[in-house]
Design goal:
single chain, 228 residues, alpha/beta, Rossmann fold, Arc Repressor Mutant, subunit A, four-stranded antiparallel beta sheet, 8 helices, 42% helix, elongated, binds calcium ion
Length: 228
């Protein structure tokens, strides 16, 4: 397990790194947000210990950027005691857990173990079709490194199409698997959501890169998923 500590207080960063290395983790330190972001982009860390209060690039911004480009990275935030809004913002940005300073090293270790366990147990694998990536656990979608803002329906449609990439999926099938007990059970509503999904994917009906319409049959997510 490889861990990156982003912390601008050298004494704390070094003490944490020393303790974690003794536990058998591989540990790197970034002294500021900019460096943390850069290292996070370069190396495939399993877990990020991220101080929110950093001198240059704010910890929340580091979280936002790395969450967008590294969907499976676990992020544990370190926050000051009274910054409740930071904790909320961090969790909303996709951090997995937080610890309030000051904390006991034993608690940090327990949190890390819990995160790694939880990760192995409940995280469904991320779906990938070409440029498209979808994380069922966090309900997040990316094209390349760009995160898409989808509605619940759009997300579910795309998830179903990605699980059946290359296959023709009928409107009835989508209704059955995506609509649950909702009332708008007519195929026109599938078309409406497909249309808005296409718009967000920047897809072209005539020359689709992602979703192809098979007239009289349904839709097909192209297995190339946007890659030429
Ligand atoms: Ca700090």
């Amino acid at each position: 397990m490889r861990i990156l500590i982003v912390e601008d207080e050298p004494d704390l960063a070094n003490a944490l790194a020393r303790g974690l290395r003794q536990q058998g983790y591989a540990v790197d330190i970034a002294e500021n947000g900019e460096q943390g972001w850069e290292l996070g982009e370069i190396y495939d860390y399993d877990l990020l210990i991220l101080d929110l209060n950093l001198p240059d690039m704010d910890g929340l911004e580091v979280c936002r950027r790395l969450r967008a480009s590294r969907p499976s990275l676990l992020i544990l935030m370190l926050t000051a005691r009274d910054r409740v809004t930071d904790k909320i913002a961090g969790l909303d940005l996709g951090a997995d857990d937080y610890l309030t300073k000051p904390f006991h090293f034993a608690e940090l270790l327990a949190r890390i173990r819990a995160l790694l366990r939880r990760d192995l147990r409940v995280r469904e694998p991320i779906l990938q079709v070409g440029e498209l990536k979808l994380d069922p656990a966090t309900r997040t979608v990316w094209i390349g490194r760009q995160r898409l803002d989808l509605t619940r329906k759009e997300f579910s449609i795309l998830e179903y199409l990605m699980r059946h990439a290359g296959e023709v999926v009928s409107q009835e099938e989508l209704i059955e698997h995506v609509w649950n007990e909702d009332v708008d059970l007519f195929t026109g509503s599938v078309r409406v959501h497909i249309r808005s999904l296409r718009r967000k994917l920047n897809d072209d009906v005539e020359h689709p890169r992602y979703i192809e319409t098979i007239v009289g049959a349904g839709y097909r997510l192209l297995p190339s998923g946007g890659t030429e």
